[in-house]
Amino acid sequence: MTDLMTVLLVFIITLVASFAQAIGGFGYVIISMALLPLFLPVHQCLVISQVSGVLMSVWMLWGKFRKLDLRYIALPTIAASASAVAGLWFLKAITDSVYLRLLGVVLILLALWMWKLSARFRIRATPLSAVLCGGFSGLLCSLFSVATPSLILYYSANMEEKDDYMVPLQATIGIQGLICILGRMGLGQWPEGSWGLVAVATLGGFLGKIPGSMIYDRMNVDLLKKVIYLFVGALGLYMLIK
Length: 242
Prior knowledge:
This protein is an all-alpha fold. It has 10 helices and no strands.
């Protein structure tokens, strides 16, 4: 049975993570996966972040399915789904201590990527880049629940406006997230008591978006992003050396 303190921590973390995402356009999964493993088992963290993440993707896509071009998302989504399955098998072979160190490295690299490199790095949208970006996204999704960086790199190659590539981005994230969820169920990577915490995280995620959306125009978004980068990088360093 999940204790009250754990429920409160999951709610607060996902509330804050969703608030940050509503303002800065990212942060829900990254902040959640940086904090939840500090007091929850690895597989439970992944279940919580992925199920609530898929539900949020469906919510963001609601009413926009007509804008979705299945031919455009086919290659990256197929590659992401295939590599996600491979990532789930790899996850079975490593211990939690090794996983946390790998997560620490990933968090540090993500912080550096988002702060210094992502705005400068561009690729061409080709079949090869679709497969590579989709495959890398699926691997990160299954292992760390972080699916967006390489997908944004690919989808923004042809669509400069965020509103244009948000639909294919969320569609791919949702599909590969669903593949991960089904795979975890089939491979026994679904800890007991996870559904209750998933409900709490989903509630926190949706509630956090409300105040974030309301004060979006009054916040210094660039400063907030830098704070998140530093925070995520520091937690990654902590996981790496503890």
